[in-house]
Amino acid sequence: MSGHATNLRLKLPAICFLLQLFTIILFAVFVRYDRETSARLWHEELSHHNKSNRDNDFYFRYPSFQDVHTMIFIGFGFLMTFLKRYGFGSVAFNFLIAAFAIQWSTLIQGFFHSFHDGKIHIGIESMINADFCSGAVLISFGAVLGKTSPIQLLLMALFEVTLFGINEFVLLSVVGAKDAGGSMTIHTFGAYFGLMVSRVLYRPQLDKSRQREGSVYHSDLFAMIGTIYLWLFWPSFNSAITAHGDDQQRTVMNTYFSLAASTLATFATSALVNGEGKLDMVHIQNAALAGGVVVGTSGEMMLTPFGAMIAGFLAGLVSTLGFKFLTPILDSRLKIQDTCGVHNLHGMPGVLGALLGALVAALATQDVYGDGMADVFPLIADGSRTATYQGTCQFFALLITLGFAVVGGSLVGATLKIRSLGSPPDTQCFEDQIYWEVNP
Amino acid sequence: MSGHATNLRLKLPAICFLLQLFTIILFAVFVRYDRETSARLWHEELSHHNKSNRDNDFYFRYPSFQDVHTMIFIGFGFLMTFLKRYGFGSVAFNFLIAAFAIQWSTLIQGFFHSFHDGKIHIGIESMINADFCSGAVLISFGAVLGKTSPIQLLLMALFEVTLFGINEFVLLSVVGAKDAGGSMTIHTFGAYFGLMVSRVLYRPQLDKSRQREGSVYHSDLFAMIGTIYLWLFWPSFNSAITAHGDDQQRTVMNTYFSLAASTLATFATSALVNGEGKLDMVHIQNAALAGGVVVGTSGEMMLTPFGAMIAGFLAGLVSTLGFKFLTPILDSRLKIQDTCGVHNLHGMPGVLGALLGALVAALATQDVYGDGMADVFPLIADGSRTATYQGTCQFFALLITLGFAVVGGSLVGATLKIRSLGSPPDTQCFEDQIYWEVNP
Amino acid sequence: MSGHATNLRLKLPAICFLLQLFTIILFAVFVRYDRETSARLWHEELSHHNKSNRDNDFYFRYPSFQDVHTMIFIGFGFLMTFLKRYGFGSVAFNFLIAAFAIQWSTLIQGFFHSFHDGKIHIGIESMINADFCSGAVLISFGAVLGKTSPIQLLLMALFEVTLFGINEFVLLSVVGAKDAGGSMTIHTFGAYFGLMVSRVLYRPQLDKSRQREGSVYHSDLFAMIGTIYLWLFWPSFNSAITAHGDDQQRTVMNTYFSLAASTLATFATSALVNGEGKLDMVHIQNAALAGGVVVGTSGEMMLTPFGAMIAGFLAGLVSTLGFKFLTPILDSRLKIQDTCGVHNLHGMPGVLGALLGALVAALATQDVYGDGMADVFPLIADGSRTATYQGTCQFFALLITLGFAVVGGSLVGATLKIRSLGSPPDTQCFEDQIYWEVNP
């Protein structure tokens, strides 16, 4: 038991206060309003550049931002409440680590993407990106759900956000890959990072907690709140930072149809793989969402509606099969205990989405994209790349992401093995009472 | 029992795969991005027609679309979770059939409304209309909730979407009626279609399942999630496809006040008709929403705020009285078993809304509408109709809708009687365990 | 028992019908569509003032309105469902009184702010303000939750909305204070008004109902739905009526960071003050939101992101300490029974927010605000005030608000003591069965 001092009375306040104060100091030194958020600067734009308030990016992106925000805090938070005795930890630790991650990623992403004259300039787009980055952390959280203390989770967020920022910088700014909806940067990275953390933190005695690693009737309904919100707003997620105009609308539409097709594939496959033809809520809650993941990279491209539907259909199929056949093998053979099955929802569909993105990029033609090529593939439009080369870059971006995730997750997992971080004993996993006052 | 082989192992996958693959093929052949969604075409608009990205319809309609989308999947889905043992079926079959219906209705409505040069052109407005159409199917689902298999529901969606498209085409394009919020096309059609299906599928032995046809404490709270979201976003529903500018704003405001008034009428009537003066959650969950239905046709018109409030007040009153007095009679006398009381929430308020629309249209004057007449009543504005004639057309549109709904619902109900579609036996209605893996 | 005739069969219908009919009559006499909602008037704007439909305020404010609307009906409603046996009353009485308050406040605020030529002109901004005003009533509802009948609540709404309108008029139009997110007008006013009502309605025998004044496992999860939605959409709340452009975006960003910091402070403090280092859901559900309240006044100002984070951090800290140490003292010493702890979430953070607003206003300089000064501080921009004087006015606005709240709450509380308003006996508080049909 000495390795599992789960009393957080001093440790949790200490780390929360430290992280928050450190973040505030860095914000004070580095972070400033950008040209659209500052009273003085925006009014200079209005008077000197003939703009109107309608041109403020706020009106192009705020509705999408709020949908993404809902996905992060309601979607991910409630999706994980399916466990019978871990509802508090699911929704509230999700809340805690996302609230930290959005601050920390504003700094990390700011250093890489909007650092000018020694200052980070922030606005609505940095808020969306911060929420995106916290999404990757929450995916990793899904893999270790119920087996980690909030202190471990905050440290994981600290390191993972940093690595996310580096990987994203390499992909978007060095390799020149496109990944607006994050099939690679968010889903593939978050899933394999989390799976490696879970691998390193392998619990051989977890069977002693298995009786709590399931749902009760109402916990499955709470989880459906998360599922449906993720499903509804995924079109906003994939389109939130694409170019204005046709790009945002096309991304929304591709995602919408991909999700619809993955839903039918999930119901079909769920009944098919069950001995009695019954549906399984775990599949519906998760695999129906794979259609959003799989068009994360290609959603802004001229994928065509039926292309999006084929992609979604395959993603739902693969994801459901993963839950049925792969998750048990990951556990028994590879010692990867994946509480929420993030490998099925984010891992495989993320990899598929990256490959699909590479393919669709390689097929891009001037005839199909017209002058819109500059928005989707600026490096093809300005003649510095061919479509084939863009596709190749997309493929290498996937490999880089997998590398960062696997190496990073292993190192961070090792760090989290430090005793005194308050992780629960094997007999007390998936149990709120360790960290929460729970009424009977 | 032979008529009730509820094992779906092969049947459900077969129908899901078939419907999805058939849809994908039709999309591949017929469906294309429209001028606002295609990279090439939108950039032609930008350069040749002096447009800016701000003019893309996406920015006028996407927030409303997402509200409608939330109503369809969260609103309808959770509203039906009030049953104590049918929460999975409510929210998840809702999910399944809506995910199919939005695809199928994109095709059907596309053939009628945006078929040019052999192709269907789609964008944000077709997505809203597809969600609208699935709303009608979900209303019908409410009438047969707990008594039908997912296979029956998918077939119902297939046929109902098709009939919806025909009826809508006749109303809007042939008769020239206005019905932006769908008092007729969605609510009246969906309700009476579903009631006829339920009539044809009458179960004389349903008493054997009555002990499950009620709520428990927490299932009523889940249902309130659905109720409140429907109530909140109904202004977006009614305004989602009205003309830009004053029309959208006016429709929102009329719906907002109508709903507020129907809420007070519902609480008042619920206490009044209860022997002990206690409130009934069934009334609050449903009748408070009647204010949204009743201004579905007239919401875009110059109804005036107090006119909207009177309409909402009457709708809340009538709807609550319907739950108390009419639903038992429908069951005992007319053999219509209406699980969710859709006759009270969508049927009667829909008919009232159609009549109100006819009245407000007949009263339209140039003095009140000014140049805005062209947006609301284009056929009056261009001189091809008088206001009185428009009102008459509105009235006939209601009769046509009732005809399509009653005849169509009867035929489809008869089709769904086919054995081997997996419907539950009378003793096992309102029970998730037939179709779902349920943890104790 | 004679003082507690809780049968509402005639009383509730009577007051609902009366209030609704009275409101409809006043709307018929006084309320008209404004220039952006009327078909004729908006088309005059289009043709005579060279406007386009994009300029309609609807497109600047409707997404924010719907977020605020969700906070009022889902956020407040579900936040209060934490009680084990008062879920119906929480979400449904919230629904009832807000549905009335938005109508009544349209009239009251209309008389003070948009009364021209004998008519009140309404549009999207009046809808946001009506929702804001109902927010104040719902805060007061939190203080008396479980101890009042719906009749008392409707009467409280009637009087409180009226006083809210007067206080708001004095602050904004007489004193010239700024308070876009309502730290004073909504939170401080609503909290102290409700606390005074609760003080006057003090129940010495409330211990007989204490066993129901707590949560069960799933009721805490329902409450988290309310919490997370309030947290998500608070940026929309504070920015909903600020000026277009940089103001809306800046307010959103300040609120976002303030909330993130208050969340970490809440988790830290919750673990710190608990004997065993366990977290308390009551704190997470409430104190994490204090960051939204505390920047209600200053959010639109050039607060800087790190300034917002410091404010949020302190608010979360103070609020959690309030739940732990102050609420018991209020009850035992001051005889204020504050069911939801509104003093901790809205009272103290509201006062802090008012003081912060005064400070930030006093520090305003032309160098920082540039031409944006006219949007934030019009009276400084036009030279009629110094920044110091603006700060002083902000401070007096707080005192005025406290005066209105304390005196108003006392008087209204005394009115609500009238017998025959159906309040529950001390033994039956926090119990749905008094007013609701409840299935076992």
Please sum up the structure shown.
Chain A is an all-alpha fold and 440 residues long. In chain A, 68% of the residues lie in helices and 2% in strands.
What is Rg of chain A?
21 Å
Estimated helix fraction of chain A: 55-70%
How many separate domains of chain A? 1
At the third CATH level, what is the topology name of chain A? Ammonium transporter fold
Largest interface by residue count? A-B, 71 and 70 residues
Q: Biggest sheet of chain A: strands side by side, in what order?
A: 1-3-2
CATH-defined architecture of chain A: Orthogonal Bundle
Low-confidence segments of chain A, given as residue ranges, are none
Q: Tally the helices of chain A.
A: 17
By oligomeric state, this entry counts as homotrimer
Report the principal-axis shape of chain A: globular
Task: Let me know the largest β-sheet of chain A.
Answer: 3 strands, mixed
Strand tally of chain A, please? 3
H/E element order of chain A: HEHHHEEHHHHHHHHHHHHH
Distance between the termini of chain A: 25 Å
The helix-and-strand class of chain A reads mainly alpha
